[in-house]
Amino acid sequence: MRICVIGGANADIVATSFNAFVPGDSNPGSVRLTAGGVGRNIAHNLALLGDEVVFLTLFGGDDFGLFTAESCRKVHLDISLCDYAAPGTRSCFLSINDCDGEMVGGVADMAAADGITPEWLAAKMEKLGNVDVYVADANIPVETLAYLIDHVDKPLYIDAVSGAKAAKIKEAMAMSVKKHFFTLKCNQIESAVLSDLQGVDRRFVSLGADGLEVVEGDAKRHFPALPCHVVNATGAGDAFMAGIIHAGPEVTIAEAAHIGLLCAKHNIESPDTVNQHWTRDCEPRDARH
Q1: What is the dihedral of CA 229, 234, 236, 239, to 10 degrees?
Q2: Which residue, 248, 183, 184, 273, is CA-closest to 51?
Q3: What is the pLDDT of residues 145-168, one digit of tens each?
Q4: CATH classification of 2-20+29-288, choosing from 2.30.30.140, 3.40.1190.20, 3.40.50.300, 3.20.20.70?
Q5: Are 160 and 190 in contact (CB under 8 A)?
Q6: pTM for this structure?
Q7: DSSP single-letter state for residue 278
Q8: CA angle 179, 185, 188 (to 5 degrees)
Q9: Domain spans of the chain?
Q10: How much is the pLDDT for 122?
Q11: Measured between alpha carbons, how far apart are the two ends of the chain, in Å?
Q12: How far is CA 155 from CA 117, 217, 227, in A?
């Protein structure tokens, strides 16, 4: 598939304590710098799965932005339509993880994404050519989400990103004329914010270790999480989102859920925000040798 992803791209600073994290104290651990951002991570995962990906974003106007853009080039994302934000405008995410890999807190500075306006996006979309699926994250402005809901003519997937940003989706739906899109992906916190949202064909709700709930029409189904060894939970939701997109809009929710959960499992078992060691059928490369 040829997929257009619109969303945030930033540098991820991931700090993981060696022992159980103690709030309010300095915790010995490791600190790593990787490329991240919900939209960028989804795009990266899709490229690893074999899809052709056009990524639309504004990179930060600093060294982190240059670092993130170069990371996209290295994994063969098409960023030919991307721009840089004003000098000094950051796009950065700081994650603090407990020794078991679970995030205990994070801070997102996504000011660069504010420049992804409807006008900016409309000019880029004129140059896109044929696209099979559109993907957006809630880092982009409300007006831009509303523009996408109304103007794309192919299935649109939206990632809620966080509880604070999930409200943007409700606002965008209220602003839009069409008031309908194909798939929403969220966690339990985000789902609570969006509990009364109408006009979505499929809703995938991550329950963490308890698996996944999928709502389609009046039907609700639960899928258990796959057994895994948690190394780093950061990015697992992005990998899951890439999995359900890669599965395709024509498959059943069970098929999409299976691919999504498999992608999330492989990501959780990697120290990186995006697990580099996948084949197109979502099996680790090491499993083939």
Answers
A1: -130
A2: 248
A3: 999 999 999 999 999 999 999 999
A4: 3.40.1190.20
A5: yes
A6: 0.89
A7: B
A8: 110
A9: 2-20+29-288
A10: 97
A11: 28
A12: 21, 16, 31
